[in-house]
Each structure stands twice: as structure tokens, then as C-alpha cells.
Design goal:
4-stranded antiparallel sheet; alpha+beta; 4 strands
Length: 192
């Protein structure tokens, strides 16, 4: 009996943990969100998003950096207002990477609190197709999940992020046109 108690205490003391659930099914992928929410770790949450959401965030980050470089190089100082240039992404524009940018996005949307409110044991998986599913929880939460490359992830923000990626791509085109006009004006007036 003492041996069993000693082994149990030793296992507890060494922090014996089971591996995280698999992303091979919606319920497992959803269960992976709990530690992220418990620790209020948006970097962890970023890693548990579906592939398309992560890709959109990476594209948005690259686009914001490109916009910033063009604005810094070609826009006159009085036309560099961050809100005018980046819109709702003004606070995220200076992020060092997509993880940090997602943290700003998540803070703006209060997504950790939103997830925490509905986080609970999975009671139902509905509307399941090859690539999408809705997970419902004991707390009445309903969460969209999506699958790509054989792995499921949280897709709650996917549609919004895809739209933002496209919109910011259009903004980048406009920023390039504006920059060309500003460069041309400088050449015509001899300004530097």
C-alpha cells in the first residue's frame, strides 16, 4: 500500500500530465482551447485556430507591414494618421508578428471572455461536414470549428478574418496609388 501511495505522490510531484487532446476531431480540438482560456493566453489561442484563420492573420500582418513601409516612405507627415491609414487595425499595425497582432484583435473583441462564457463540456456536434462543424457545450456555447490538412481548429473568426484580409489587400492597392501620387507631387514641386 505504501508503495502505491509513494508512486502516486511521486507522479503528482513530477507533474505527470497527459498529452493534449488530438486535433483529429472537433471535440478534441475544442478541448485544447481550455488551457488557453484558463491562462488568458492569446498566443496559445492563435495556435488553436483553424488553418484559414491563422493564414488570414499572417496575410493581414504582412499587408499591414507593407502599408506601413509605403506610408513611411511616401506619405507626407500630415497624411500618416494611423486610423486613417489602417482603420480598425491601427492598434495592431505595429505588431511584431501575427501572434501579437491576434492578441490586439482578441482584446478588441474581448474574445477570451466570450470563449470563457461558453466554454464547457461538449454536449453536441452538429452541422458536421468534411470540413466544418458546430460544437455546443453544457454552458450553452456554440462554436464553429473547421478542418484543413486533417486538423480541426476554432473557426469563430474565420469569415471575418478572410473578409478583412481581402479588404486590407484592396487598401494596400489604394495606398500604393496614393503613394505614387505623393511621390509625383514631390517631384513636381521639388520637395524631399
Amino acid at each position: 500500500m505504501r508503495t502505491i501511495v509513494a508512486v502516486t505522490l511521486l507522479a503528482a510531484a513530477t507533474g505527470c500530465q497527459s498529452p493534449p487532446p488530438s486535433r483529429n476531431d472537433p471535440a478534441g480540438a475544442f478541448a485544447r482551447l481550455a488551457p488557453c482560456v484558463d491562462s488568458a493566453d492569446t498566443g496559445c489561442l492563435f495556435d488553436e485556430l483553424d488553418r484559414d484563420s491563422r493564414w488570414s492573420l499572417s496575410s493581414i500582418h504582412r499587408t499591414l507591414k507593407a502599408i506601413g513601409e509605403i506610408v513611411d516612405r511616401s506619405y507626407p507627415a500630415n497624411r500618416r494618421d494611423p486610423v486613417a491609414v489602417y482603420g480598425t487595425w491601427a492598434k495592431a499595425a505595429g505588431s511584431k508578428d501575427p501572434h501579437e497582432m491576434f492578441s490586439v484583435f482578441c482584446s478588441r473583441r474581448d474574445c477570451l471572455r466570450e470563449l470563457a462564457r461558453g466554454l464547457g463540456a461538449v454536449t453536441e456536434i452538429s452541422a458536421m461536414t468534411e470540413t466544418t462543424a458546430t460544437v455546443k457545450t453544457t454552458r450553452g456555447g456554440s462554436f464553429q470549428m473547421a478542418r484543413a490538412d486533417g486538423e480541426w481548429g476554432l473557426a469563430t473568426y474565420r469569415d471575418e478574418l478572410i473578409k478583412e484580409k481581402i479588404r486590407l489587400g484592396d487598401n494596400l492597392d489604394q495606398v500604393r496609388r496614393n503613394a505614387a501620387d505623393f511621390d509625383e507631387q514631390r517631384l513636381a514641386t521639388g520637395e524631399k
